[in-house]
Design a protein that fits this description.
Largest interface: A-B, 55 and 58 residues
Number of domains of chain B: 1
Number of strands of chain A: 9
Radius of gyration of chain A: 21 Å
Order of helices and strands of chain B: EHEEHHEHEEEEEEEEH
Shape of chain A: globular
Shape of chain B: globular
Number of strands of chain B: 12
Strand content of chain A: 5-15%
Strand order of the largest sheet of chain B: 2-1-3-4-12-11-10
CATH topology of chain B: Rossmann fold
Strand content of chain B: 25-35%
CATH class of chain B: Alpha Beta
Order of helices and strands of chain A: HEHEHEHHEHEEHEHHHEHEHHH
Strand order of the largest sheet of chain A: 8-7-6-5-4-3-2-9
Distance between the termini of chain A: 39 Å
Structural class of chain A: alpha/beta
Radius of gyration of chain B: 17 Å
Oligomer: heterodimer
Helix content of chain A: 40-55%
Largest sheet of chain A: 8 strands, parallel
Largest sheet of chain B: 7 strands, mixed
Chain lengths: 317, 224
């Protein structure tokens, strides 16, 4: 199939049959191509955290490519404390009924039973997320065992490749959720993309040292070294609060953005949501980003990293 | 040859790589002036609701609509197919449909992501092996006009989805998944996600034919 098409050869009349192991039309669901494919469709878009069906409709109206259904946005989880878990299935279903765009939901790190429930609910993507309280201090979910695709957070290249080796079809920076402070997301993106750049310069012997240093499988390290990119899309999450924040991370190399508390904790969510969508598309056109940034009302209140009691990005291994 | 890719949202990079592989340098289209002098345009996969909103806010909707009405060759995949169709069922009221090909499509008619799949397709007019096709929350063709040429179909198995929130049809109905009308080609699947370049090659040959036709018969002022 990969070969350039040529005129059918009379000497190999049955060559078609060797290509396809199953009859034409047989459907293969849950393949890596299908899982990664949805992530590719979200590129250049904004995925918005929503806690009600009404929020989900506002997000869809504003041009969100997908919504993340959860019970509390990260800034409330941070403020209220306690164990943060998967959302109530009734809430997820209400949000699925409210919109036509993909609906994602979060499971706790390592909590494969929550992931099984989310798959049973027919969610479009599962975020195995550090924003929720981890359920397992050593193991992430075996994501290859699922038909539904997973997105996972990463702070550096090694973490990204470990998640991909476990079956993640999409990687996002962790940033520091619920802070409205972009500094950590920038650190994570620069770390991941900077190391990818360095890895492309490594010779075959050096790649083994990289694999050891990154605690990542050598085959994935080789693939990144040869292609100069992750085998799955790289999105940005954790701290985006303004259109300028989105333009910044898109220019740094993110392929789409997740916005958590930044929209529905601001003064005018509908307007801000739309402005962030437009800034994400026109990220390299400062005239447009300036235009959409005017008069958005107050952003969510932000937090300084030094004042944080809990760093969510430290969760996951 | 100047082929544009609507670059508001979606898998623009994959279409761009596909065109580059077959020797065509793509141009990204984000603003009205990016349309000047195009020989053809690709509307990629992505979210059609998002693209509809961005088509309006970027000022592209009307000039692109005029170009398409004047016969600009176009390839639409998935969300791009919805945008090029005449009518979208289950679309939002603000869903943009350019009517470049006489189809009625149902958004997410194959179901949610868990029903997304890949399969081999036999395509009329393509030589060689069957075409591997990747369907992601794909639109379903509900009706096609007489001018539409169906190049590939898929049988909906019993109990198959009738769309998100709809009852399954379960009637084994055969649905078009690759269609052509004049210089417009649409796929419910994503030829840009697989290494097989035959669909892009077909589109480039359609653009070439259209260019030859235009040089032979100069268009009037109402044309492009």
């Amino acid at each position: 199939m990969e070969d350039a098409p040529t005129a059918p050869s009379a000497s190999a009349p049955n060559s078609d049959h060797s290509v396809s192991e199953t009859p034409t039309g047989t459907r293969h669901t849950g393949t890596f191509t299908v899982k990664r494919g949805l992530a590719d469709m979200l590129r250049g878009g904004v995925i918005m955290d929503v806690v009600t069906a009404e929020h989900a409709r506002i997000a869809e109206d504003a041009g969100a490519v997908a919504v993340m259904a959860l019970e509390r946005v990260p800034s409330d989880i941070r403020a209220q404390g306690g164990v943060a878990r998967m959302s109530d299935p009734a809430l997820i279903e209400a949000i699925q009924r409210a919109v036509t765009i993909p609906v994602m939901a979060k499971a706790r790190i390592g909590h494969f039973a929550e992931a099984q429930i989310l798959e049973a609910l027919d969610v479009d993507y599962i975020d195995e997320s550090e924003v929720l309280t981890p359920a397992d201090e050593a193991h992430h979910i075996d994501k290859r065992a699922f038909r539904v695709p997973f997105v996972c957070g990463a702070t550096n290249l090694g973490e990204a490749l470990r998640r991909i080796s476990e079956g993640a079809a999409l990687i996002r920076s962790k940033g520091e959720a619920g802070t409205g402070n972009i500094v950590e997301a920038v650190r994570h993106l620069r770390s991941i993309l900077g190391d990818i750049g360095k890895l492309t310069q490594a010779d075959a012997a050096e790649r083994y040292a990289w694999a050891k240093q990154l605690s990542a499988p050598i085959d994935l390290v080789n693939e990144v070294a040869e292609t100069g990119r992750l085998p799955v899309p790289l999105f940005c999450a954790g701290g985006i609060a303004t259109p300028a924040d989105s333009a910044l991370v898109m220019q740094l190399g993110a392929q789409a953005v997740f916005v958590g508390s930044g929209i529905f904790k601001s003064e005018d969510p509908a307007r801000r949501a739309r402005a962030i969508v437009e800034a994400t598309t026109h990220f390299d056109d400062a005239q447009i980003v300036a235009k959409v940034s005017r008069g958005l009302g107050a952003s969510m209140p932000g937090l300084e990293m030094a004042g944080l009691e809990q760093r969510l990005a430290d969760r996951g291994w | 040859m100047d082929i544009g890719i609507l670059a508001l949202q979606g898998d623009v990079a994959e279409h761009s790589a596909a065109l580059s592989e077959i020797g065509v340098a793509p141009r990204r289209v984000r603003r009205p002036d990016d349309l000047t002098g195009l020989d053809g345009i690709i509307l990629p996969g992505g979210e059609s609701t998002t693209m509809s909103m961005l088509l309006e806010s970027s000022g592209l909707a009307d000039p692109l609509g005029k170009e398409l009405a004047a016969g600009l060759p176009a390839l639409g995949t998935c969300a791009g197919m919805i945008l090029l169709s005449t009518h979208a069922v289950d679309g939002r009221s603000d869903q943009r449909c350019f009517g470049a090909i006489d189809l009625t499509v149902r958004r997410n008619g194959f179901g949610r992501q868990l029903e997304s799949f890949e399969c081999d397709l036999v395509v009329r007019g393509l030589s060689g092996a069957p075409l591997r096709a990747v369907f992601i929350r794909a639109p379903l063709v509900e009706a096609s006009g007489p001018a539409v040429e169906v190049l590939a179909t898929l049988e909906q198995p019993a109990g198959a989805h009738g769309g998100v929130g709809e009852a399954p049809f379960g009637d084994g109905r055969v649905v078009p998944v690759l269609c052509r009308q004049g210089a417009v080609l649409v796929a419910a699947f994503h030829p840009e996600l697989t290494p097989d370049r035959r669909v892009h090659e077909l589109f480039v040959s359609m653009v070439e034919d259209d260019r030859v036709k235009r040089t032979e018969v100069p268009r009037t002022d109402e044309g492009r």
